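Take a minute with the sequence and fold tokens given here and flag any structure token that looks odd. Thanks in advance.
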Amino acid sequence: EENLDSVKALTAKLKLQTRRPSYLEWEAQVRGQHWGTHTPGGAWGAEQGAGHPEDRQDGGVCGFATVEAALEWLRTELREMQAVDQRLAQQLMRLRAQLHRLKVEQACHQHKEMLDDATFGLEGCEEDSDLLCNIPPKAAFLLSMPLKHIGVTRMNINSRRFSLC
């Protein structure tokens, strides 16, 4: 909470404002509507009627007939904002899952290429067989087989860094 307060204070000090289109649209909508009027669709809106603040002389609260009406409008706005927030959170989680899946697929593809390169290198040792390899190529290949499914091969591990994430 202290961090939020410090960010708010810094924002006010630097006179920063959001340029986010969704916020700017919402702000324009709220500023453009007449407070306390209710549209037929069930949302508070810009329809002028008997509840318009300038037409009213009964001393309502911010254009609303009662404090309860103002609170009900605020509750409705909050519910709408929470619904939008929930949809955005779900979309973010789907994108995060897709990103993770793509990273795993990319890592698997890279490891498969690495294994193919190692296999090709071992086949090259077998073909050359002029003592370039210290271990017989078949034995080296068989040693790497039990660990092949997790991406460990008979290579200089210090020369590369690997990650499954």
Remarks:
- The chain is about 60% helix and 0% strand.
- Confidence is low (pLDDT under 50) at residues 39-57.
